[in-house]
Amino acid sequence: VDEIEAMVDEVVDRFDGLDVLVNNAAVFFMKGLLELPPERIRTTMRVNTEGSIFVTRAALPALLEDGGNVVTISSRAGTRGSPTDPTYGASKAGVIGLTQSIARNYTEDGIFANVVAPGAVDTKMFPDDRRPARREASPIGRLVKPEAVANAVRLFAETEAISGRVLEIDGGAA
C-alpha cells in the first residue's frame, strides 16, 4: 500500500494533479475452482480486485481536489461469470462493485466512475485454442479489436455526464 500511495503522489507531483485514473490489471489462470490452488486464488483477488481498491483509495484525495474520472477495466466475466475461471469472474465482479460504489459516493463531488467490461478481445491474454469458437459466436465474426476497448476508455475518461455505468465491449455476443 505504501508503494501505491508513493506512486500516486509521484504522478500528482509530476503532472500537477490527477484528472483520470484507469484501473487496468488482471491475471487469469483458466482453471476451475477445484483445480486452482489457494495461492492462485489469492493472487487473482489481490491483483484484480485489491489492486484497484488500493490504487483508487490512494487516488481519491487528488481526484477530489478538482474532480476527475475513474475508469475500471473489468470483463464480461465480471457481469456474466467466467466459463473457465470462477475466481477471475469473481474478481472482476468485485471491481464493478467498487467502481459503482465510487460513483454513488463521489459523483456529486465531481468524480465520474465507470467500468469497461470487454468480452473476447484480440490480445495475447485470449488463448488461441478458444479463438475459433468465439469468432463463430460473435455477430461481428471476429474478436473485438483492442482499439474498440480504448475508445470506450477514452469516452469514460472524458465524460462529465456519465457515472456508475458498465459498458460491455463484446461485438454483440450473447
Helix and strand topology:
Blueprint (H helix, E strand, L loop, with lengths): L1 H14 L4 E4 L14 H29 L1 E6 L2 H5 L5 H21 L4 E8 L12 H7 L8 H13 L7 E4 L5
Parallel strand pairs: 1-2, 2-3, 3-4
Helix pairs in contact: 1-2, 2-4
Describe the structure.
The chain is built from six helices and four strands; from the N terminus they run H-E-H-E-H-H-E-H-H-E. Strands 1-2-3-4 form a four-stranded parallel sheet, sandwiched between helices. It is α/β, with parallel strands linked by helices. The N and C termini lie far apart (39 Å). It has helices at residues 2-15, 38-66, 76-80, 86-106, 131-137, 146-158, and strands at residues 20-23, 68-73, 111-118, 166-169.
> Radius of gyration, Cα only, in angstroms?
17 Å
Shape by Cα distribution: globular
Q: Numbering strands along the chain, what is their spatial order in the largest sheet?
A: 1-2-3-4
Distance N terminus to C terminus? 39 Å
Q: Could you give the order of the helices and strands?
A: HEHEHHEHHE
The low-confidence parts are none
Helix coverage percent: 40-55%
Number of helices in the DSSP assignment: 6
Q: Give a count of the beta strands, DSSP E runs of length 2 or more.
A: 4
Largest beta-sheet details: 4 strands, parallel
Strand % is 5-15%
